[in-house]
Fold each of these.
Amino acid sequence: MVVTVIFVDLLGLALIVLGTTLAFRQNAVLGWWAIRRQRRDPRGRTAPPGDGSPAQYALRIAGVMLLAFGLAISLLFTLFYLAT
């Protein structure tokens, strides 16, 4: 296979993993963001949002969009390469 196909497939795989993490492992992502914000804010007044917060809806939407884009770009690029 050509190096560009492998590169695009790896990029698509990274987007799929990132999208899956954002969409379905929201507590982990919110925990990472809380830890990162605590490093910036020494007062420690950041708490992860609870269930039903707007942040979780935004994470779910962004995660599914990244997952779909990664799948589409990998699949279409590889299939086009194999068809030609």
Amino acid sequence: MSNYRYNVSLEIPNILESGSTFSKIETTYDENEAFSLLKDGRNRLERTGKIDGKVVTQIYEDGKWI
């Protein structure tokens, strides 16, 4: 099992408000499955896990985790 939980979704920015709406949300512990879901009509990938004992959420953007 992975040390990370991956959330993959379709993010639609709100035009008149700040923030976004999320749909087509899928959760997996398999990184390869997460990247496959990202190619299947979704545009946001984030992972949550522990780094140095702290829970951290990272977003995959421009080919790297930030």
Amino acid sequence: MKFPKWLMVLCLILLSLAGFFYYALFMPKHFATYRSPDKVYTLKIYKEPKLFSMPGDGSTSCVKVKLYKGFWRIKDNCQDCPAFSSSIDVSWHMNARVVLFAKARGISLDTGDCE
């Protein structure tokens, strides 16, 4: 049994739209970029989308933090080091070799580990 050509095209279009909406709803969105004072490191912050929120919590969402040295990401860092978008406050401490991105949240510039 052969499927009609128009049905295959319709299925392909619907699958493409479903993939687009999945990407638009669930993929982290770029929130902010910070450069180190010596312009060697870049800290990129991505917001994770929320499908719903409690009253009074509409603008706060979880963020993912990625640290780059030049064009290379140092490590797949801070996936288990959560922070909220309302608490982002980036400060670079080059002598201590650490960047603080939220209250009690930081990344070592040498190893890329969360501290």
